[in-house]
Amino acid sequence: MKQNRVKDGAMSNVKINTIVTRTASYSVLLLMTILIIIPIVWMISTSLKGEAVIYNTPPEIFPSHPTLDGFRQVWVSHPFFAYLRNSFLVVSTATFFSVCVSTFAGYGISRFNFRGRGFYLSFLLATQLFPSIMLLIPYYKIFMVFGMVDHLSGLVIIYISFTIPFCTWMMRGYFSGISKELDQAAAIDGASRTRIFRSVILPLALPGVAASAIYAFIAGWNEYTFAMVFINTDEKKTVSLGIGQLIGEYRTFWNELMAGSFFALVPMLLIFIFFNRYLVSGLTAGAVKE
Amino acid sequence: MKSAFAKRESRSGYFFTGPAALLMLGLVVYPLLYGFFISTQKTNLIDTWKFVGFKYYRQLLTDPAFFATLKTTGLFAFCVVLGNLCVGLLLAVIVNQKIPLANFFKVILMLPWLFPEVVVALIWKWLFNPLFGLLAHVLMITNVTKVEYDLLGKESSAFAGVVFVCVWKGYPIVMLMMLAGMKSIPQERYEAASIDGANKWQQFTNVTFPALTPIILVSAILETAWWFKHFTVIWLMTAGGPSGSTKVVSIDIYMQAFTDFNFGKAAAESVIVLIILMSVSFIYYKVLRDETE
Questions:
Q1: CB 3.0-4.6 Å disulfide test: which of A138, B171, B231, B232 passes with B88?
Q2: Residue A64: how many CB atoms within 10 A of its CB?
Q3: A216 and A135, same structural domain?
């Protein structure tokens, strides 16, 4: 009897604990959701306002006369189509190259023991410590010599240089998760190293390839600093750069700016909606293994 | 026989890693060494090249303004990394519970990560706008401030504003890494802990946190490196102002090089930043490894 009472007391304690934790959890989640939603709502609401309404005080959160002027104007008064095209061109080329070599390298590191392997790994991590801005000045000079300042090809090279390390790192994580016994089995069947890679392991690693491609794409799409330094011609700007420089010297049309931001965001949202699964699995493989 | 195998093994290793290694050599190592070379030159990068030795390093290391910039940068990186780790870890723990809507909130909480830095900076700059922004308006109608509050225009608050925005943008990646780490903690440990009568908090400090320490260490190093050299959000929101209160070292390097055309000095600054980041990572590594042992 006495024991039962103690047990009941313990149970209700647990229950109270659960209620407290749940309430606390949901309060934090709610607060964070509000903090995340406000800027998004503010962006969309501004992009739907007419030029004059932006400067109304008090600001309307839900515009009373929504208009698509901002969305139209950003295409008319700026070469916004060129921005998008340039971004797609530069970022997909860079992504393609760096994912190709990174997949090879990730496989090599995960499978073979060779002199310099440890050094190579620490070098890949160390590249994350280099201030990217440190490469700005040498690249500027190198591009001057090759006549690549104000050329999209220069940006491709830079984006390749900073996506290779983390793509290689991710691919290594992914390959490590694939059993080496598969390699051995294929080798016993007489397949060559390249054949094993191409026909046995690569097909299994495709989700990892997709994940690192997506990461490389997002990183390139978001890059601003190098684009700002190397690209001057309006027609050659990328989306990030184009939007960043819509802030006028005298007057900023915030509705156009927010409409432009919205367009820059859409590809990222689409990637997220369609490839969510790969993103998380790729990161898991890269982060947990060692 | 064995050495033949080892030879073949390392040949395959070089074959697969070769292309990436060559590209890194050409695209990262060479420019890096070249940057070091530039840091010893007085140059306009076109036709004037004059060797000045370590003059720029001496100049920088005796310049109080440079130390002030480093201090701002260090404080900025510290605040953002701490913020990211705390918020990221807290949210990861929360959405990792088996509660209704956990997956829905996971998606919402990841959204800031998708936003390009430029877009984040501009949206918040517009929210913080003193005359037409939402924040100033809310502060006015709630009577917190009497006049329009210029958050980014005040020395006292611009720094906090920039840090806030960077944490807003930066925590999801930490959260994702922590969630990935928690997946690998065996469920039995929690069961054992709750049989021993541990409450949620004790479970966190005794099971979750120790298991996550390696991942926290890696995130802390990478995050510190990322935010110490951060440029875009600060540049677009405040451009280092007002009166230098948000002037981090990346902005200083950029202005030194492309406003003052003092390329040698800017390169020297970059080298110093690299040395700082390497020492900081080394210390982190030492400290956290000793603690876990």
A1: B171
A2: 8
A3: yes
